[in-house]
Amino acid sequence: MHYVEPSREVLAETLLAAGPHAPTLCKGWQTKELAAHLYLREHKLSSAVGLFVKPLAGRADKALAEVAEKASTTESYAKLVRRFRSGPPAYSPMHLKSVDNSANLSEYFVHTEDVRRASDRWAPRALDSEYSDALWAELIKRAAILYRGVDLGIVLVRPDGPRHVAKRSPVSVAIVGEPGELLMHAHGRTRHALVMYEGQPDAVALLESAEIGI
């Protein structure tokens, strides 16, 4: 099953419910900045490239700030979210289902939780088992990159049994949690991920202080 389209719907509804000035787990961003980011990465190729190419980062940041500023009112914000909700244009690479799935499955889950978990009271969503499996599959594709800054071995462990060695080292820490929680941890949302650590205390302390994610 293709989960990106329903994930987009959930993310859009979460953004609309929060309004333009709600906090997020993305440092320095309110929901209007997050909505601008989501729109621009699909509709403006230069903004998408700017996420990874430093010479273009300034231009991308300026475009994001301009779009976010225009979305400061409830009406303009809702319009921006609706434009994101309508999906990528035909000229965008993300219009292709394979690219859309690779680029957005994890992105939409993490950003939905960036809004939900920024509040004082939140609870994890009950996810469909096949959706969890899809998130797990995406996670293990990228785990080595996401944990590249950690000077430890990393083993990701699901409570129902599957394990994945993300990084090998003489000293390792196992991170145990449901796929969605592991995904949040791997994307640097460590304090808001419901996971447990198994390893030597000094290794766990090193993991907790490490830079994780992209």
Shape: globular
Tell me the number of helical segments per DSSP (H or I, 4 or more residues long): 9
Poorly predicted residue ranges: none
Order of helices and strands: HHHHHHHEEEHEH
Alpha-beta classification: alpha+beta
Beta-strand fraction estimate: 5-15%
Distance between the termini: 27 Å
Question: What fraction, in percent, of the residue positions are helical?
Answer: 40-55%
Number-wise, the strands total: 4
Most strands sheet? 4 strands, mixed
Question: Strand arrangement, largest sheet?
Answer: 2-1-3-4
Overall pLDDT: 92
How many domains? The number is 2
Based on CA atoms alone, the radius of gyration comes out at: 18 Å
What does this protein look like?
Strands 2-1-3-4 form a four-stranded mixed beta sheet. The chain is 54% helix and 8% strand. The chain has helices spanning 4-18, 31-43, 45-50, 57-70, 74-85, 97-116, 129-146, 179-186, 201-209, and strands at residues 153-157, 163-167, 172-176, 196-198. The mean pLDDT is 92. The chain has two domains: 4-116, no CATH class; 139-209, Nonspecific Lipid-transfer Protein, Chain A (2-Layer Sandwich), CATH 3.30.1050. Strand 1 and strand 2 form a beta hairpin. Helix 2 crosses helix 4. The chain has nine helices and four strands, in the order αααααααβββαβα. By secondary structure, it is an alpha+beta fold. The protein starts with a helix and ends in a 5-residue tail after the last helix.
